[in-house]
Design goal:
Layout (H helix, E strand, L loop, with lengths): L1 H4 L3 E4 L6 E5 L2 E10 L5 H14 L2 E9 L2 E2 L4 E5 L2 E4 L1 H8 L6 E4 L2 E6 L1 H11 L3 H8 L3 H9 L4 E2 H11 L4 E2 L18 H8 L2 E4 L7 E5 L2 E6 L7 H8 L5 E5 L14 E3 L2 H9 L24
Parallel strand pairs: 3-4, 4-7, 6-8, 14-15, 15-16
Antiparallel strand pairs: 1-2, 2-3, 4-5, 6-7, 8-9, 9-10, 9-11, 12-13, 13-14
Helix pairs in contact: 5-6
């Protein structure tokens, strides 16, 4: 996999993923496996939570699903996460569009129903003529026009030959939302951070919390004993979110020349997001229990 991602901004060896990689405007959190059928629901959920926490797309890269070899330029699915083979992954990073998706046991292609209707009207093709050409029923054609039905690969090829491939819709990886796990925060500081933001807790990762506050999307790490700050610093160079270390009284050496903002408590964290002073509310600054000396960090 490194051979494929080395042309892009990437980091390896996260606790949840094998690779986090950026290609153009897309960031992917990638886990490579031999057989996607053997991946647990919890592992997929953890991958999903990391992706959501950093504003990325979760992706499984596999050779097989059960006894089936994965085909190039086909998107499969496991627990709501997109699954592709290595060749397809490389094509995605290159910006190539992938049109075929396997749903259960059927290979399908999505249609731009509005554009199909427009082209048929421009070319003077009736619904009956279209049905005859495609070898399908009129009801199927009406379903295509209404956007209620995907088509087979053979039908997609016939459609493209007749009216052009602009009627075919590429697979939208944004649709693969995965599954969210219900997990408790590791530390009181993580809990407090979630209480003052619209965010999720990321289990097992080098990211603690990700979300939004004061109109700013952020990814945060807090001290909990096994955080890898060097990895977090590298992540900050890849993602489009403000990266913040919360609960550190000194700047850890590994963060000194990074994009990560280091804050001592929740008040400083909120001020870093907004760029404006924040009036303390209750015990918003009482995060001594989560405070960590930077010299003790990684």
């Amino acid at each position: 996999m490194v051979r494929i991602v080395e042309k892009y901004k990437y980091i390896e060896n996260g606790k949840v993923s094998d690779v986090v990689v950026r290609s153009n405007d897309d960031v992917f959190v990638v886990l490579g496996v031999e057989n996607s059928a053997k991946v647990s629901k919890r592992k997929v959920g953890t991958l999903t939570m990391l992706a959501k926490g950093i504003g990325a797309k979760p992706l499984l890269v596999a050779k097989k699903s059960g006894d089936e070899e994965l085909l190039e330029d086909v998107v499969y699915e496991k627990y709501g996460v997109a699954v592709v083979n290595l060749e397809t992954f490389e094509n995605i990073l290159k910006g190539n569009k992938i049109y075929i998706r396997k749903k259960k046991s059927i290979f399908t292609v999505s249609i731009d129903s509005k554009r199909l209707k427009e082209l048929c009207e421009e070319m003077g093709i009736s619904m009956g003529e279209l049905a005859n050409y495609l070898g399908v029923s009129r009801k199927s054609v009406y379903d295509y026009i209404r956007g209620n039905k995907d088509v087979s690969v053979d039908t997609a090829i016939r459609l493209a030959e007749l009216v052009g491939d602009e009627v075919l819709k590429p697979v939208n990886l944004e649709e693969f939302q995965g599954i969210e796990l219900k997990v408790e925060p590791h530390t009181p500081l993580e809990r407090e951070l979630m209480e003052v933001t619209d965010s999720i807790h990321v289990p097992k990762g080098n990211v603690s919390v990700g979300g939004e506050a004061r109109g700013v999307k952020f990814t945060a790490v807090v001290p909990h004993g096994d955080e890898e700050l060097e990895w977090f610093a590298e992540l900050s160079e890849i993602i489009d979110r403000m990266s913040v270390a919360v609960g550190y009284s000194d700047v850890p050496k590994t963060l000194e020349n990074s994009k990560v903002k280091v804050t001592e408590n929740l008040q400083q964290f909120l001020e870093a997001l907004s760029g404006e002073p924040v009036e303390p509310e209750g015990d918003i600054c009482s995060t001594d229990r989560g405070r960590h000396k930077g010299s003790q960090g990684n």
